[in-house]
Design brief:
Elements: H1 3-15, H2 22-30, H3 36-48, H4 52-62, H5 70-83, H6 91-116, H7 122-146, H8 149-161, H9 164-177, H10 180-190, H11 195-214
Helix pairs in contact: 1-3, 2-3, 2-4, 3-5, 4-5, 5-7, 6-7, 6-10, 6-11, 7-8, 8-9, 9-10
Length: 215
């Protein structure tokens, strides 16, 4: 049996325990001394239980400052929302993480700009661009937990298309459904502007975010 098939069989066996296994999985998930490869499998298993308690545990782990499972947890939550639409996700921890990722995006834009001015660092700039694209995708995956997922997916797809018409559609859609605190932070990130203007916006937004954090 292949390794992937073995992992799938093990996952199915754990899922078969239902809610009884969630506490044990939580312990392994949060234990940084455990094997990281095994821990990376746990968010997906928890998501497949379709349990509200599992959703809460994943959000709790995601909220930790130094979690090393961010990518796996966000992906698991996104799939959980899609496959178990009856689950209601706590809004506050989702919005807190969204704000963290938006700030990260602004910082990445500034770093990309600084890298691109140095020919020797163009390869690093491309890595940062990939990181920025992944972070933007995660922002929308999280927003889909607490807002109509179909609308959030449409908005992200139009942003990815990159045309002015598609961006305008996304901004209008998001302006209609997002709370003001989210709109004020997110929309400047996706507006149709030059890269140089985007850098200026990013610096301004980071300063504004710092003032909010200090208040």
């Amino acid at each position: 049996m292949s390794r992937q098939a073995t992992q799938e069989a093990a996952s199915q066996a754990l899922i078969a325990y239902g809610s009884k296994i969630i506490g044990t999985l939580r312990d392994y998930l949060s234990d940084t001394d455990e094997n990281i490869r095994a821990r990376k499998e746990i968010p997906g298993i928890l998501a497949r239980t379709g349990s509200s308690r599992a959703a809460e545990l994943l959000l709790l782990e995601l909220g930790k400052e130094n979690t090393d499972l961010e990518n796996e947890i966000i992906e698991a939550l996104h799939k959980m929302r899609f496959n178990s639409p009856q689950i209601r996700f706590s809004e506050r921890p989702v919005l807190v993480k969204v704000a963290v990722l938006i700030k990260k995006s602004y910082l990445l834009i500034i770093q990309i700009y600084e890298m691109k001015t140095d020919k020797k660092k163009e390869v690093l700039a491309r890595d940062l661009e990939n990181n920025l694209a992944r972070t933007l995708k995660q922002i929308f995956e999280l927003l889909g937990l607490i807002y109509p997922q179909d609308d959030i997916i449409k908005a992200y797809q139009n942003i990815s298309a990159g045309t002015k018409k598609a961006l305008d559609y996304s901004i209008e859609l998001l302006d209609n459904i997002l709370k003001k605190e989210v709109k004020d932070l997110l929309l400047p990130l996706i507006e149709d502007t030059s890269f140089e203007e985007k850098v200026r916006i990013s610096r301004r937004m980071l300063k504004a975010a710092e003032r909010i954090d200090e208040s």
